[in-house]
Amino acid sequence: MEIFSRNSLFWGEENQNILKKQHVAVFGLGGVGGFCAESLARAGIGELTLVDFDVVSKTNINRQIVALHSTIGREKTELFEARLKDINPEIKLNIINDFYTENLNSLFTSHSSPLTYVADAIDTMRSKISLLETCVKNGIPVISSMGAGNRIDPTKLYISDISEIENKNAPFVSNIIYQLKKRGIEKGITVVASREKPFSREKISETESITTNDGKNIEFVKITPASTPFVASCAGIFMASYITQSFLKEYKS
């Protein structure tokens, strides 16, 4: 396809065809996941499953790619469905407007179009840990965002195995590592992390209640981080680049 001709100039037609056969799931379409999903579509990934339960709010506008005054109140999944189809009309999209719990684990056992990679951009602790554990148990490669909030400098981002995270003392990261360790998982998960010390002028939290599509009521404490326009977007692009490169055959002589 002509829209991917510049990609092919870099990694070749064979690799472009390989990307067309891949199926990646992106969990969370906020600042990180939204840029990840769009970058994957522009790379030429043939099938994406997009999972998010939220709608656009005014506070999303500073950093989320589909957040505009004209889209406030609209479902993020709906907006991305239209946007990514506009980028690549041939892309296959599976849209799940729901909160991730174990009720969506059929995604990992479906044989009709098996997942070849998962991008975790969930910011709810319980769901994030559950998703990562499910990926490991099912042998599905996953890359996870380990906190893009409360930061301003995207040059401090890096990719590593979860066992090699440098700043394990950041509360969000340390809690995830602790909970995964309790489940026997200490390595084998790729992460995008930051060397920057998190900072926020104020701690804001509230209790939020959600009803999933299968009628399950979930209540959790939502912590609102400080967020700049820079780090989340770059973290999402880092994730998409890493996923894409994992599929490519050697293309440099």
Structure write-up:
The protein is an alpha/beta fold and about 250 residues long. The chain has a single domain (about 5-195, about 225-245), classed as NAD(P)-binding Rossmann-like Domain (Rossmann fold). Helix content is about 35%, strand content about 20%. The chain has a seven-stranded mixed β-sheet with strand order 3-2-1-4-5-7-6, sandwiched between helices. Strands 8-9 form a two-stranded antiparallel sheet. Helix 2 (about 30-45) packs parallel to helix 3 (about 75-85) and helix 4 crosses helix 5 (about 170-180). The longest helix is centred in the C-terminal third of the chain and has 17 residues, at about 230-245. The relative contact order is 0.18. The mean pLDDT is about 95.
